[in-house]
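Field log, afternoon session.

UNIT: design team B
ACTIVITY: writing a sequence onto a fixed backbone
BACKBONE:
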């Protein structure tokens, strides 16, 4: 009459029947429903655990068995060990017991492209909708993640829009504005997945330009560092992920958002300690002569800081339209760094209520998340010289810089630099790589106000030691006009495909 509860031993599985109760009968035999406990099977190590890997010694795949792995030919970065031994655990999943865990990325897992407008003229005149210049990417994997920024200068009065097309689809818009007929540089962003065989990008405008106004300076003697498309392309979704959050709030600008409230948020899980993240946010802001938004507005990017107590990046714009104008401005912020394993949230905000956004093509928060920190190096250099602005900086002097040594010939560098300035006229920001100018930004204000300069670069520099430097031309200023502390200016860079040291 006694009863006994039977369950499977560790490493064995009865499926949906977790246990059974047996009763000892008068015949000294157990009666009741018996359960069968087959040994757990972890299945193929390659299919269940690893990507682009070959198994080495795998005599079987059941509980307690061991299996070694190595990357398949053409996968895994040079200088990074991907060899590891796994055991089939009691849960039926492979668990690393020695060596290096990992996804095996394509080798090289990245490539870059830089295209520039070389058609002639400064500025050049274009018909509405005509491509200024084109960038074509050859794609060889089922999915490729591209991270794009276009920079374009224009000579015009007031607003004239810039469009970015991907495979003949409009994917992003930007709208520079100046109160007088003058030069200004704008930037335009896109991040997303594309499929083979090719991806074609081009910049254009919905407005036909008429001399002397126009877009770009392709006839510049410096090789045209103003008008460029920079792209980094990642051939594998592992170990790098993307996350794109578009501004879908209704309104233009969106209303009902107080100052320092969340305009966009992106929450993600870091799977490993020291997961590397490159964050990029951009959005337009508005002001008109009758609104409270006239004047200064700050654009804020925060990490695990929903109240913006200590944002990781800040930029500034100043709008002062007359009664006849409704003025817009584009704003952006960047940051790169390592985060701990677990959940994290980036938040985008502004210092002025009801002033930011006009739909998905005018604003987004883009994340590049590197789950295997051994496959990248990053550099986050802050403006630490002090002063607001720093009056000791002579025109042409370095504002920020960093030096690094590259050991992988296929590694690709992505750089985003920004810094604010206070001046009553044009002021240019220059980005140099190894003493060569690679990008130039033109800023303009007419009332001694603050503005932000932004510059970018992508490229494969090759094995050796390299220097990246941010500098400026003050165009008549007798003293320094740039900078106001570490959150108002930085060089954010990631070297993809370079083993970390």
């Amino acid at each position: 009459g006694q009863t006994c509860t039977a369950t499977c031993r560790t490493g064995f599985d009865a499926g949906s029947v977790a246990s059974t109760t047996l009763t000892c009968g008068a015949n000294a035999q157990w009666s009741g429903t018996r359960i069968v406990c087959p040994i757990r099977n972890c299945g193929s190590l390659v299919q269940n655990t690893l990507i682009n890997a070959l198994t080495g010694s795998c005599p079987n795949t059941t509980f307690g068995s061991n299996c070694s792995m190595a990357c398949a030919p053409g996968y895994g970065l040079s200088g990074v060990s991907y060899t590891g031994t796994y055991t089939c655990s009691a849960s039926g999943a492979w668990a690393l017991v020695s060596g290096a865990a990992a996804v095996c990325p394509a080798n090289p897992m990245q490539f870059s492209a830089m295209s520039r407008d070389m058609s002639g003229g400064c500025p050049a005149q274009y018909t509405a909708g005509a491509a200024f210049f084109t960038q074509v990417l050859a794609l060889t994997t089922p999915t490729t993640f591209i991270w794009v920024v276009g920079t374009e200068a224009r000579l015009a009065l007031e607003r004239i829009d810039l469009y970015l097309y991907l495979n003949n689809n409009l994917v992003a818009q930007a709208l520079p504005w100046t109160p007088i007929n003058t030069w200004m540089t704008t930037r335009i962003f896109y991040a997303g997945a594309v499929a083979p065989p090719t991806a074609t990008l081009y910049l254009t405008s919905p407005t036909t330009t008429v001399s002397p106004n126009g877009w770009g300076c392709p006839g510049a003697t410096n090789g045209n560092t103003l008008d460029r498309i920079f792209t980094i392309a990642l051939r594998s979704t592992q170990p790098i992920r993307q996350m794109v959050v578009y501004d879908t709030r209704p309104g233009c600008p969106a209303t009902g958002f107080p100052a320092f409230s969340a305009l966009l948020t992106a929450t993600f899980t870091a799977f490993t300690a020291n997961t590397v993240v490159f964050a990029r946010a951009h959005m337009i802001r508005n002001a008109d002569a009758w609104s409270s938004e006239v004047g200064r507005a700050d654009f804020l990017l925060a990490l695990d800081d929903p109240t913006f107590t200590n944002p990781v990046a800040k930029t500034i714009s100043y709008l002062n339209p007359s009664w006849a104008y409704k003025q817009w401005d584009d704003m952006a912020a960047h940051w790169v760094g390592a985060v701990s394993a677990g959940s994290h949230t980036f938040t985008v905000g502004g210092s002025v209520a009801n002033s930011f956004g006009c739909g998905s093509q005018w604003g987004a928060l883009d994340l590049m998340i590197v789950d295997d920190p051994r496959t990248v190096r990053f550099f986050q250099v802050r403006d630490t010289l002090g002063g607001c602005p720093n009056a000791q900086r002579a025109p042409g002097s370095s504002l920020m810089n960093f030096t690094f040594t590259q050991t992988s010939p296929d590694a690709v560098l992505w750089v985003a630099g920004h810094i604010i300035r206070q001046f009553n006229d044009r002021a240019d920001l220059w980005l140099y790589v190894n003493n060569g100018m690679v990008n130039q930004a033109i800023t303009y204000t007419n009332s001694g106000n603050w503005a932000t300069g932004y510059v970018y670069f992508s490229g494969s520099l090759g094995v050796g030691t390299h220097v990246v430097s941010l500098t400026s031309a003050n165009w008549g200023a007798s003293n320094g006009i740039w900078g106001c502390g570490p959150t108002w200016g930085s060089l954010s860079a990631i070297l993809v495909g370079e083993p970390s040291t």
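LOG NOTE: The mean pLDDT is 87.
NEXT ACTIVITY: expression trials, pending approval
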